[in-house]
Amino acid sequence: MKVFIPMAGRGARLKPFTLKTPKPLINVAGRPIVSHLINQIALSINTKIEEIIYIVGDECYFDDKIIKLLEDISNQYNAKTKIYRQIEKLGTGHAIMCAKDSLNGPAIIAYADTLIHGRLTINDEVDGLIWVKEVKDPSSYGVVRLNSKSNIIELVEKPETYISNKAVVGIYYFKDAAILREELRPYLNQKLSPGEEYLLNFGIEKMIEKDYIFKSQILENWMDCGTPKLIINSNSKMLTLLTPEPVGYKKEGSVEVIEPVFMGKNITISNSTIGPGVTINDNVEIKNSNISSSIIMENSKISNTELKNSLIGSNTIFDGKFKNIYLGDYSKVESNDDE
């Protein structure tokens, strides 16, 4: 099995947290978003992941350090790493075709901007699978239309009238990715009108027109990570699902930890209450603070505050009265009680 991870975007909605770190590599509930995604795939399928294909952007942003991090993730599953670059952002279909030389055999395509938790079951009797989440307001999503045999017959983006409540979450299985490649190849030779993009859905719909069988499969837990608020909510939910044990931190004075909480390496906490729903990454110091439903990135120092629903970037010093704040990397905020 091959796993394709298109991740060439720069996470504009998550700036300043994505100025140096691609969104799929932001640590949520103890590991990067893309690592959670691959881990769930590896735990679910009954076959080995042979190769992970990352489709990234230009070398100025996705530099050697980023590529090394991606290789390290692949190595956790004894999988080969292949890197392709999408320099022009021309859509989801274009992104996949940047890796056209690898598009063959059984494959999963998974977009690395969401968290998932739950089993992905591969049905070898069909030509493709599209994972979906049942939602209350389908008009905000792309949804699948099913026939009486529960086969997918159409993909509809943000329907104005009700079609189904099964929203596409961005994870797909193809029994033979070469078929998708051949359907997308002539499509990418067409000239785009202003504002248009080459879409992955086009290739899938062409396959459906030729009587290839696609089924939908409901995913139990799907969490969006598109904005700071959504990342914080997804972090809390993922911690509840994973229930990690906060172990190995240095405790000074009175400390209360209300689970679920994730703590990385070299954490020092003094006279503080932490949790629930908190992720603290490596090399963090926290003093005289109450923190809940928040993420603290690595190498940061937090003191004399009460934080909730907050995202604190890496290498940051925060000593302030704010209760809800998004603070980017390398920031410094200190209160001045003398003024």
TrEMBL record:
Q: Where is the signal peptide?
A: none
User: CDD domains, from UniProt?
Assistant: NTP_transferase
Q: Which SUPFAM superfamilies match?
A: Nucleotide-diphospho-sugar transferases
**Annotated ranges, domain Nucleotidyl transferase:** 8-238
Q: Which InterPro entries match?
A: Mannose-1P_guanyltransferase, NTP_transferase_dom, Nucleotide-diphossugar_trans
- Coiled-coil portions: none
Please name the PANTHER family in this protein's record: SUGAR-1-PHOSPHATE GUANYL TRANSFERASE
Q: This chain belongs to which protein, by name? A: Nucleotidyl transferase domain-containing protein
The species is marine metagenome
